[in-house]
UniProtKB/TrEMBL annotation:
<dbReference type="InterPro" id="IPR036909">
    <property type="entry name" value="Cyt_c-like_dom_sf"/>
</dbReference>
<dbReference type="Pfam" id="PF00034">
    <property type="entry name" value="Cytochrom_C"/>
</dbReference>
<dbReference type="InterPro" id="IPR009056">
    <property type="entry name" value="Cyt_c-like_dom"/>
</dbReference>
<keyword id="KW-0408">Iron</keyword>
<feature type="domain" description="Cytochrome c">
    <location>
        <begin position="186"/>
        <end position="292"/>
    </location>
</feature>
<keyword id="KW-0349">Heme</keyword>
<dbReference type="InterPro" id="IPR051459">
    <property type="entry name" value="Cytochrome_c-type_DH"/>
</dbReference>
<feature type="domain" description="Cytochrome c">
    <location>
        <begin position="42"/>
        <end position="145"/>
    </location>
</feature>
<keyword id="KW-0479">Metal-binding</keyword>
<protein>
    <submittedName>
        <fullName>Cytochrome c</fullName>
    </submittedName>
</protein>
Amino acid sequence: MGYGRWISGFGVVGLGVAFFVTAPAPLPDDALIGADGTALIGDPIAGEMVFHAAGCASCHSAEGTDALAGGKSFVSDFGTFYAPNISTDVDHGIGAWSDHDLASAMIAGVSPNGAHYYPAFPYTTYSKMTPQDAVDLIAHLRSLPADATPSRDHDVGFPFNIRRLLGGWKFLFASDDWVVADVATPELERGRYLVEALGHCAECHTPRNALGALNTGDWMRGAANPSGDGTIPSVHSDDLGWSAQDIAIYLDSGFTPDFDTVGGEMVDVVDNTSQLSDEDRAAIAAYLVALP
């Protein structure tokens, strides 16, 4: 009888720990407060750069339009995910969300109603975004037109449709640590920020484990295409063999050193990186060439 009570007690404790670990955790209330104690003010012009660096339009633009109405599908081993409407529409987009709601979604992966987002939304890398970049991006998003297209529900079966379980996934795999811990110059630091945080390049170019988490031991070494159609190439300097100048030119023009042109999903990526400054493209290139 005593043994049974011990087992029951451990079960209750285990459930309590699991309930705590899997609870959605939005950003703290003061996350968007500056060092001077006042709320950060977003700059929509600076936010446009963040918008391009983060590739927002690549996922959220509706087919055939610039409206951020969502709908693009992302096939995976866990189901098919659909990008939501992030236009300023009050009913179907983000028009009724506060800045804190939006920042919690992007950085913490938590919805305004307190639910976990699936990591098909790359908040696991946006988590490294600076608060100022977050409010700048939000200011830019608020300057864009509304679209009343409803977001489409994800096609995800059991048990992956239990969003609470994502809290355990975050506990195991989400991290704010830089993959490349040591960078020697401001240019490399900027490149790391653009690649590892805003650009979320590893979400496609790094392989994943059985639970869908990035295998950082093979950082940027290429991965299987989640759709099952071919592979996504390595952009690690050991495999790519391009110079920093080659990479910077490609990110601007879409031309490879062999005078081939960009294709597939990279068309959207280059459309975004071509909007960045020469210095930012050079920083991305320097980071990739310097990968250990």
